[in-house]
């Protein structure tokens, strides 16, 4: 054995023998992504399965009562709003329509014609559309 690294690591059976003492009480409930450990007393067989929680589709945009699997109690939800695909689509559509309207108002011949003198700039006549 290399004296620089110390003692060898414990065996698997020794490492998993006292896991209940290592896990603090605050972490005894499973969180999404945690491993749920079940133990067989005779022979110390440890089975670790991942705890997965999939988000459901909310029934409303307002707070409602729901069961929380992490807290294991019924709560009233807190709503947080974020920009989704629909909001960005509406913004892009509004920008497109706004630029189209600006183009129509400024670039196409829907404007009135005002005739000026090229020397002094005096308005000589007007031609209105419509």
TrEMBL record:
Principal location class: membrane
Keywords from the UniProt entry: Membrane, Metal-binding, Transmembrane, Transmembrane helix, Zinc
Membrane topology reported for the UniProt record: Peripheral membrane protein
A Pfam family matched in the record: zf-LITAF-like
Domain of life: Eukaryota
Domain LITAF: 47-129
Family label: Belongs to the CDIP1/LITAF family.
Protein name: LITAF domain-containing protein
Organism encoding this protein: Caenorhabditis elegans
């Amino acid at each position: 054995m290399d004296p620089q690294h110390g003692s060898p690591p414990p065996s698997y059976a020794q490492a998993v023998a006292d896991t209940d003492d290592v896990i603090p009480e605050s972490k005894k409930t499973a969180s999404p992504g945690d491993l749920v450990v079940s133990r067989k007393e005779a022979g110390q067989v440890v089975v670790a399965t991942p705890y997965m929680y999939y988000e459901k589709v909310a029934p409303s945009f307002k707070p409602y009562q729901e069961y929380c699997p992490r807290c294991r109690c019924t709560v009233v939800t807190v709503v947080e709003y974020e920009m989704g695909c629909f909001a960005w689509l509406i913004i892009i559509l509004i920008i497109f329509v706004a630029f189209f309207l600006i183009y129509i108002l400024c670039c196409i011949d829907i404007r009135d014609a005002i005739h000026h003198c090229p020397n002094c700039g005096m308005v000589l006549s007007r031609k209105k559309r419509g």
